[in-house]
Amino acid sequence: MKDKHKLSSLERVRKAMQLQKPDVIPVGTFMGNHAAKIAGVPLIQYYNDSKKMLEAQIFALDKYNQDIVIMQSDNYYIAEGFGTKTTHYQNATPTFKEPAIKSLKEISKLKIPDPWKDGRMHVYLEAIQMASEEFGDEIAIRGCGTGPFSLASHLIGTQEFIMEIAKAEYDLPDGDESAIFHLMEITTKALERFLIAELEAGAHIIQCGDSLASLDVISPETYKKYVYPYEKKLFNNLKEHTKKHNAFSLLHICGDNTKVINLYAETGADCYEVDYKVDLRLCKQNIGGKMCLMGNLNPTKVLLQGTVEEVERAAEECIAAAAENGGFILGSGCEVPMDTPEENMKALVKVARQYQY
Question: What is the CA radius of gyration of the chain?
Answer without folding.
Answer: 19
